What does this fold into?
Amino acid sequence: MGKRNVVLLQHGLIDSSHTWISNLPNQSLGFILSDMGYDVWLGNSRGSTYSQYHKTLDWASQRFWQFSWDDMARNDFPATIDFVLNQTGKNKLFYIAHSQGTQIAFANLNSDPILRSKISAMVALAPIAYLGNVKSPLRLLSSVCKDIDFVNTWLGSRGILMLFSLVRFFSTFLCHEKSISFLCSSILYSFVGYDFDNTNTTRFPVYFAHAPAGTSVRNMVHYCQASRFFNPLLYADSIAGKDKGDLNDHFCLISRRQPVIPSHKCSKRTNHLCWKVGMDEAAANIFLTTHDREGFSTVTTTQPWFWEWKKNDSTWSSIRQFTPPRHLDGMSVGSLKRGRFCASLHYALSVPVLLLAHFVIRTWSMSHGKFQAFDFGKEENLLQYKQAVPPVYGLSNIDIPLKLYWGGDDWLSTPIDVCRLLNELPRRSYIRNMYLPYYNHIEFVWGLDAAKIIYPDILDFLQEFQ
It folds into this structure.
């Protein structure tokens, strides 16, 4: 039995284990963990480039590809954990995952206390559970992929986005030239979120020599099912009898759409909070304003200074870890569902903090954007699940040490969806998160400054729970 602590790294969708060592050694999390003395294991999701073997099924057979992340969560994730522990002789390991790697863990851990006991701590980079607010062009496919038979007719029922010779040609040859690497990065960022400054474009030949690594058509259909249009409904609960002096426990969230969190805490009661409504997805990025006109202030978003707060690092100084809203009785829900509650699409308003602090805005999920098992259709669901609709995955039992790292420019794991995830996790001191305003989906593994901003924090988190 070795003395080194074990770390299992699990990649995201259509990626492979190579993503953890794609950058230079001092910038790749896999190498950094190894240099720090960890016993590092790299996992590969079923159907990816390095995981296309099976004990009984042939890679070219249709049956091999009849899986989604649902199967990875139920079968592959626990099998991988047990394999690594058996090989190392350890009882526990650290689990670090990106994107889909976090999703399969969330789907399993909530209902498996034995597996939870085998994980010392988990790090979730660009975490995914809900996908109802995806901004990527992939969302456009959600309207046509509801019927798996229809998708199979057009795309087949095997693998998709595999690293075949044509893909390898485009990735290693075309993306190699500097003049064309901009085109490659533009295509990539259109799916994961834009940030040209934090990517080493000279590494594109390395990145795209191993990605996309492929997955099954059914897996992509499952993601389409999860990203169907999400239309949240807002309601507020009155804080009856709330002591005005005790405001620091609450977040002020006002929006006609699902709030974006974290928002500024209600700690400076002499100031006022300003919020944006209906503009992009930053519907509730609340920030302090110095304008005080008899307790209220109205400004238009066409004024240049209005947007300067986003460029100012001090704006984020008062962001706190997200606290789930409280369940309180009081105000009628109907009054907030009717009419234009906050503002028009062209204005940002501010109101006294004390007024905002007396309302905690929550979101009510409609029938879309659920974190649930694969939807086969009513008849097949009855056979598979003994119910007409797929079972929904919970999150409230995941009480292991957990830290989530999420980005404001992530078009796949969007802030709105991550906030929904955070809201359903248990409230524990060892469940934390770090919000990076300008990070997109892929920068958590490929970003130039990830080794300076994120990875040292990950090392500190792992050290705490050794």
